[in-house]
C-alpha cells in the first residue's frame, strides 16, 4: 500500500502564524520545519517557527491533497481557525501523535 498524502497545518508556539503544506511523510516534513526554524530560516515555516502540528487530513492521491491545500490557503484566518478547532478543540500540538 502506498503512503497516504497529508495536508497539514502547523503553527508557532504562540499560535499566531499558520503554515499549510502537503507531504507524503509528515514526520520527516515536521523535522525539516523544525531544523529550518533552528538553523537556516530560509522557508516561511522556518522563519516564523511553524513546526507545531495542529491539523491534518489524509488523502489517497497527491492531486486531491494539492487541491485541498490550495483550497485551504485561500481561506481567511477565521475560517482556518474554525477548521482547526473542529478537529483539535484545544489546539494541542499533535507532532507526537501522527505516525
Sheet with most strands: strand arrangement? 2-1-3
Q: What about the largest sheet?
A: 3 strands, antiparallel
Give the CATH architecture. 3-Layer(aba) Sandwich
Mean pLDDT across residues: 94
Distance between the termini: 15 Å
Order of helices and strands: EEHHEHH
Keywords:
99 residues, GIY-YIG endonuclease, 21% strand, 4 helices, alpha+beta
List the helices and strands and how they pair.
Elements: E1 5-11, E2 18-23, H1 26-38, H2 44-47, E3 52-59, H3 62-74, H4 77-87
Family: Belongs to the UPF0213 family.
Organism: Flagellimonas abyssi
Pfam families: GIY-YIG
Polypeptide structure, described:
It comes from Flagellimonas abyssi. InterPro entries: GIY-YIG_endonuc (IPR000305), GIY-YIG_endonuc_sf (IPR035901), UPF0213_domain (IPR050190). This is GIY-YIG nuclease family protein. Belongs to the UPF0213 family. Pfam families: GIY-YIG. By secondary structure, this protein is of the alpha+beta class. It has a single domain, classed as GIY-YIG endonuclease, CATH 3.40.1440. It contains 4 helices and 3 strands. It has a 3-stranded antiparallel sheet with strand order 2-1-3, with helices on both faces. The longest helix is centred in the first third of the chain and has 13 residues. The chain is globular, with a radius of gyration of 13 Å. The two termini are 15 Å apart. The mean pLDDT is 94.
Amino acid at each position: 500500500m502506498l503512503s497516504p498524502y497529508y495536508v497539514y497545518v502547523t503553527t508557532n508556539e504562540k499560535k499566531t502564524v499558520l503554515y499549510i503544506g502537503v507531504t507524503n511523510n509528515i514526520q520527516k516534513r515536521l523535522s525539516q520545519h523544525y531544523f529550518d526554524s533552528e538553523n537556516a530560516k530560509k522557508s516561511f515555516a522556518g522563519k516564523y517557527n511553524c513546526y507545531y502540528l495542529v491539523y491534518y487530513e489524509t488523502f489517497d492521491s497527491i492531486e486531491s491533497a494539492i487541491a485541498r491545500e490550495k483550497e485551504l490557503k485561500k481561506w481567511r484566518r477565521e475560517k482556518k481557525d474554525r477548521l482547526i478547532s473542529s478537529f483539535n478543540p484545544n489546539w494541542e500540538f499533535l507532532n507526537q501523535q501522527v505516525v
